[in-house]
Amino acid sequence: MDEETAAMAAMMGFGGFGTSKGQEVEGNDVGGAKTHKKRTWRQYMNRRGGFNRALDKI
Predict the structure, then answer these.
(1) 15 burial via Cβ count (<10 Å: 0-12, 13-18, 19+)
(2) What angle is formed at CA 26 by the lines to CA 20 and CA 27, rounded to 5 degrees?
(3) Which DSSP letter does residue 57 get?
(4) Is residue 38 pLDDT above 80, yes or no?
């Protein structure tokens, strides 16, 4: 970048950005990730072996 573009970027606040990819970020250990468990289905009726028996293992 030339001097004029660098001065404009610094004036607008774009001067010192970097990346945090692969780095430890201080204060980031407070929260947790929300993970979703994949839903499984159970067939209650019209099963092989009849209706009145234990459900299949999930």
Answers:
(1) exposed
(2) 120
(3) P
(4) yes
